[in-house]
Amino acid sequence: MSVTSDLMELREEAVRKHYAAANAMLEGFDHTPRVASGAEPAAVERSSGIGTRRRFRSTTPGLVTRSTARPEGVHLLDRIAGADGDDPLVSRAQASVMHGLRRALGIALAVGEAFSDATPLGEMKRANLQGSLGADRKAEFSSLLEGEALAVGYVFANATAFLLASQASEVTVDVGEVQEVLTDNAQLALHGALWELDQKLSTHASDEPRMVATVLAFAEQLMERIALRAQNGARTGAFTSANWRVEADDLTLRGFTPATKAKSTTLTMQFKKPHQVVGNHIAKYQAMRLAKMLMAYDFERRLNPFAELGGFIFTFMGDGAPGTGKTTLIQMMAGMIYEYCQNAGYTFRYQNFGIDNIDSYQGKSGQNAKAFINNVLDPSVIGFGTIDDIDQIAGRRGDRQSSAGQQEVTAVFMEAFAGANTVVRGNCTFGMFSNFPENVDDALRQRAGARFLVDGPQTREDYIDILALLMGRKHDIPLGDHELYAAQQIQKAVAASFESHNRPKEPGLMEVFDRVSSQIGDLDTIAKMGTYLKAIQEADPRFTGRAIKNITDAVKVRAMDFELPDEWMEQPDLFLFKPYDEKAAMIEDLRRPITVEMVIQEINRYADSEFRYADKSDEVAIEAMVRDFGRQEEAKKRWLENRPK
Fold first, then answer.
1. Which residue range or ranges hold the ATPase AAA-type core domain (predicted)?
2. What is the mean pLDDT of residues 412-421?
């Protein structure tokens, strides 16, 4: 039965028919390790004079590299039951792990059976049992067996991690790299995985929390290792092209992609209304529009019409001086998305990556950053990820003052935001915020597709509004001659803000703009605007092709510069619950034409920000060098005065 357009149901009876085989594997089997080495046996005390014999090494040609290790009995149920000392009864956590492993094995074997039925493998297995498989098909047979082994092994690890996620605690275990990944056939792949899991449990599972953490950590490592192995040309197309749904477990299997539960995060922040964000007109306007853009995401197609038509903001940089309202902007945007999701019944996930995610252990900071990215990218939720004070969190490459953890985080963010494997579905957005964006690595900063200048209150009216807002209502001071929050009317304020970018604001960019305009006249053609862009690049070599992409993306955002009606958010049937193609057509009808003024304004907005960052960065570096030279001169003067005569 088809669940959605791209999901097939993995029937419950197809899973349960494999329970007997799964029980047998958990109760016990013998396995000779091929790749990994087992735990070292404890030293046995011997009487003096009794020698020890060396391990037998075959001298037969062709057998010298074959493992001579003895088969080991794997009894996972006994191993799990022994994680709680001498208690003869199985605890709730132990039972959950046992049932989770059995269920994961049943699902994996059912997927393996479906893989065989969808490929010639099923027929080849029968022919091989009968001894009628031709020699010309041996290579194909081996390749398909390898594909089935990879699919079954990955599904087992994926389902285990998914089913036991609710048992996780704050305890973590580093199980090391998984080695016993066997691909001869599906059964051997599972035996190798269960044997190594038994080894990890014998080493790390000293109590129940560590036992659960060991199983989960092992499953994550096994998934990574098998997914990497599957990139080497194995015949796994029948597995990656079919997406399966296990309704009883709310589990969706999509090839070599980890399954996650669509859980909302518990938000404890104090939400802000748009009128409570004083000033910051363009930033506020774009944040409000982005919140509604996210809601256009289609969970069945797993794509947002805005991401397909253009104009979706996947990453943005919010910069401004301390106290100008960056945190308030985050509270406003998160609050709007949360309310929209509550109304539509969607799952909303907000997560912030902070300085406490930087770890002293090598590789751990990168793992934390990757987990943060994956949680927000989860295509089954509407996600909003923020990185506050990113200049403190992500280190600049080549900066000796940046820790190894900060360098790891920079590498992960660069790959996630604009890497070779980046896929923008339109279900989430990432905001990077900083008081000192000039300290952010240049390449990482340029991966922010949109720039939100958070400059706070600017006009007299803004300051009256923010004073009245923060004073509250528990006073008797009259307001005076002022219309409260009239200056915060977004459309009027935004129009004025965009028009202010008809000319650049930074002195360095103004010189370039005036020089080019005097030479070629008004910038009213693609050729003239390209000439202006080249002149900017000559003034600032960091103005590269990625900058042009960000500018054109911003122009497409302006083409989508329309307000999705509030009724569409309040009554989901009007828009949110419509089929993807119908939503795309409704958005297409609202698209605005792109004008020369839009392009010039966006070039100036983006280039102004880059010149601002560069000027600040250079000025900071110059001031630091001046201080260093001053200290050197003072040190030299004191040394000359006090040196021995």
1. 320-453
2. 86
């998934």: which residue's tokens? 223
Report whether 338 contacts 267 (CB < 8 A): yes
Cα separation, 447 vs 317, whole angstroms: 9
Q: What is the pTM of this model?
A: 0.61
| β-pair type (72-74, 29-31) | antiparallel
DSSP of 433-456, one letter per residue? EES-GGGS-HHHHHT-SEEEE---
Q: Is the separation of the CB atoms in 432 and 448 below 8 Å? A: yes
Rounded Cα–Cα distance for residues 294 and 394 (Å):
26
CA distances from 536 to 156, 163, 336, 498, 551 (A): 54, 54, 38, 20, 13
At residue 151 the predicted structure's pLDDT band, cuts being 50, 70 and 90, is very high
Region of poorest pLDDT, from 83-97, 218-232, 556-570, 608-622? 608-622
Alpha-carbon distance of 112 to 118, in angstroms, equals 10
What is the DSSP code (8-state) at residue 54?
P
**Residues 163, 27, 35, 37: is their CA dihedral positive or negative?**
positive
Cβ atoms 56, 68 nearer than 8 A: yes
Distance between CA atoms of residues 573 and 567, nearest Å: 10
The tokens describing 438, both together, are 């000039």
- 298: Cβ–Cβ under 8 A, 6 or more apart, which residues? 304, 305, 579, 580, 583
Please enumerate in sequence order all residues whose Cβ is within 8 A of that of 518, keeping only pairs 6 or more positions apart, or say none: none
Q: CA 269, 272, 349 angle in degrees (round to 5)?
A: 45
| Summary mean pLDDT of the chain | 82
DSSP track, 344-380: HT--EEEEE--GGG--SSTTHHHHHHHHHHHHHH-TT
Residue with tokens 């392009």: 599
User: How many Å apart are CA 436 and CA 446, to the nearest integer?
Assistant: 15
**3-state class (DSSP) for residue 317:** strand
Distance, in Å, from the CA atom of 226 to the CA atom of 157, rounded to the nearest integer, reads: 9
Residues in Cβ contact with 256 at an 8 Å cutoff, skipping those fewer than 6 apart: 154, 223, 226, 227, 230, 236, 240
Please state, in angstroms and rounded to a whole number, the distance separating the CA atoms of residues 451 and 453: 6
Q: In this structure, are residues 274 and 283 in contact, taking their beta carbons and an 8 Å threshold? A: no
Secondary structure E strands in 198-248: 243-246
The segment with the largest mean pLDDT, out of 199-203, 416-420, 471-475, 480-484, is 199-203
Confidence category of residue 60, pLDDT binned at 50, 70, 90: very low
Query: What single DSSP character describes residue 315?
Result: E
Instruction: Assess contact for 422 and 376: CB atoms under 8 A.
Output: no
Can you tell me the distance from the alpha carbon of 633 to that of 635, in angstroms, rounded to the nearest whole number?
Answer: 5
Q: What's the gap between Cα 213 and its chain centre?
A: 22
Strands (E), 450-526: 450-453
Cα–Cα dist 530/523, whole Å: 9
Separation between Cα atoms, residue 271 and residue 231, nearest integer Å: 44
Residue 524, helix vs strand vs coil: coil
Distance between CA atoms of residues 223 and 562, nearest Å: 43
